[in-house]
């Protein structure tokens, strides 16, 4: 990703799940390379703290509170970003969670939260970013943070619903690539699978 960031200097990137972990690291690198980043998370105060740390970097981090299980909140947040920061050039679908449960004694609410966050939230964010990129003829980049368990089933207890969501991300990446190619839309789509 770093090799191609020069053309995105001063452009807007959205990173979901930006408060901790991989999302936090992605935000840091983008801002250090001059990108304007809208960081989304439920715990917006963590992004606010991070923005202060990054104040002297070439780019800038703007915190946005957003629950990726709520479509209205996702759409509203994207609209606010478009009106306040400008058009979207990069979307990093990083928000995701693994709630410990299984299919034998499973907790339906945990399943639903995991599915809504890891799959539907990603789909809604992708749609909203792609609409803007297509309308403005932006050669943007959509990146899905997947997982190694999106390609194989590991014998780790209580991962089954999480594994299923990451397999869905693998499938969604492939179908989005096909859709973009079919419509001759110059948006890149990438899936990254940390181990």
TrEMBL record:
Oxidoreductase listed as a keyword: yes
Family (UniProt): Belongs to the short-chain dehydrogenases/reductases (SDR) family.
Superkingdom per UniProt: Eukaryota
Keyword set, alphabetical order: Oxidoreductase
Gene Ontology molecular-function annotations: oxidoreductase activity
Organism: Hypothenemus hampei (Coffee berry borer)
Cited Pfam families: adh_short
UniProt xrefs under Gene3D superfamilies: NAD(P)-binding Rossmann-like Domain
Cited InterPro entries: NAD(P)-bd_dom_sf, SDR_fam
Stated name of the protein: Farnesol dehydrogenase
């Amino acid at each position: 990703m770093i090799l191609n960031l020069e053309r995105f200097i001063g452009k807007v990137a959205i990173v979901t799940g930006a408060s901790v972990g991989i999302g936090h690291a992605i935000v840091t690198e983008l801002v250090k390379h001059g990108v304007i980043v809208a960081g989304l998370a439920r715990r917006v105060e963590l992004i606010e703290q991070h923005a202060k740390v990054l104040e002297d970097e070439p780019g800038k981090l703007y915190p946005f509170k957003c629950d990726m299980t709520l479509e209205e909140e996702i759409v509203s947040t994207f609209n606010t970003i478009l009106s306040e920061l400008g058009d979207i050039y990069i979307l990093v679908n990083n928000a995701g969670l693994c709630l410990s449960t299984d299919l034998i004694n499973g907790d339906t609410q945990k399943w639903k939260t995991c599915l809504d966050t890891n799959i539907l939230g990603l789909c809604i964010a992708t749609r909203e970013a792609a609409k803007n990129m297509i309308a403005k003829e932006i050669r943007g980049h959509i990146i899905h943070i997947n997982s190694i368990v999106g390609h194989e089933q590991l014998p780790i207890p209580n991962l089954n619903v999480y594994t299923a969501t990451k397999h869905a991300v693998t499938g969604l990446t492939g179908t989005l690539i096909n859709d973009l190619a079919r419509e001759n839309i110059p948006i890149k789509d990438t899936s990254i699978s940390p181990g």
